[in-house]
Amino acid sequence: MTDAPQHAVPPGPPIGGATRLYAVLGDPVAQVQSPGLLNPLFARLGIDAVLVPVHARPGDLATVVRGLQHIGNLDGLFVTVPHKAAAAGLADRRSRTVEITGTANVLRREPDGGWLAENFDGSGFVAGLARAGHDVRGRRVALAGAGGAGSAIAAAVLGAGAERLAVTDPDGPRLAALVARLAEHWPGRVRASAEPPLHDSDIAVNASPLGLRPGDPLPFRPDALAPGAVVADIIMQPRETPLLRLAAALGFDVHHGIHMLNGQVDEYRAFFGLR
Predict the structure, then answer these.
(1) Can 84 be counted among the known catalytic residues?
(2) In terms of CATH, what superfamily is 20-119?
């Protein structure tokens, strides 16, 4: 019998009786990238903690969140599709961003045992754009998707000084409610749109789940964009979504989903006190 080839395995976080726990909740959950990003960070910083994926279906979410709240060495939850709005509703306290967007992508357990909800999707997205050389200040943004990540991105691009934001979503009541909340803080700069106004947009963003599964239709047709526009997709797996492949083939600058997660790392560290 021949020996199998040996490959170097990077050290993971230590697992022991003192290990602190974090969980990322989603349905599905196989596509999540946060464990692959944060567990190496824990190891690099010498933090005795581990982030694990938890597949929680919508009908079970409240039971899962309340159950995890009683685990003494669990410090927080990360939340992905489709649970971000529901997670905000399950929190005991909410940040200003969560109150505006109605969604959360992280919950931190406070000293009294309650959940504090925050949403870093939007700020992470804007930070990722800025690192790639795409400043949203003064830009016209078309956003497809008013769900968990989309609502946070909407608030963040407005807060970062976008000139105009047009949001589309097939869920009419959800879209109207989001635009109404945003308009209270940024009057005259946000509107609901039946179709993305691509012809006069500088940045077009897919914040919907379209592209996550094979055979999904495109969230919008990038060939309607003016030359020089940026096409962004928040989907992380697959990295090259059909939208981004087509946009790149048409000569547009494309912005991948992983940048949104990378843009949140420093905020996660501050939020959870990871030093």
Answers:
(1) yes
(2) Leucine Dehydrogenase, chain A, domain 1 (3.40.50.10860)
pLDDT confidence band for 126 (50 / 70 / 90): very high
Give the C-alpha separation, 42 to 175, whole Å. 38
**Number of H helices and number of E strands within the chain?**
10, 12
Q: What is the distance between the alpha carbons of residues 77 and 68, in angstroms, rounded to a whole number?
A: 9
**pTM for this prediction:** 0.88
- What is the rounded average pLDDT for all residues in the chain? 93
The one catalytic residue in 84, 94, 108, 255 is 84
Residue pLDDT, tens place only, 87-96: 999 999 999 9
Domain boundaries, the chain: 20-119, 122-261
Q: Which CATH superfamily is domain 122-261 in?
A: NAD(P)-binding Rossmann-like Domain (3.40.50.720)
Tell me how crowded residue 222 is: count the other CB atoms within 10 A of its CB: 23
pLDDT in tens, 2-24: 344 444 435 654 689 999 999 99
Contacts 24+ apart (CB under 8 A), 60-64: 61/25, 61/86, 61/87, 61/90, 62/86, 62/90, 64/25
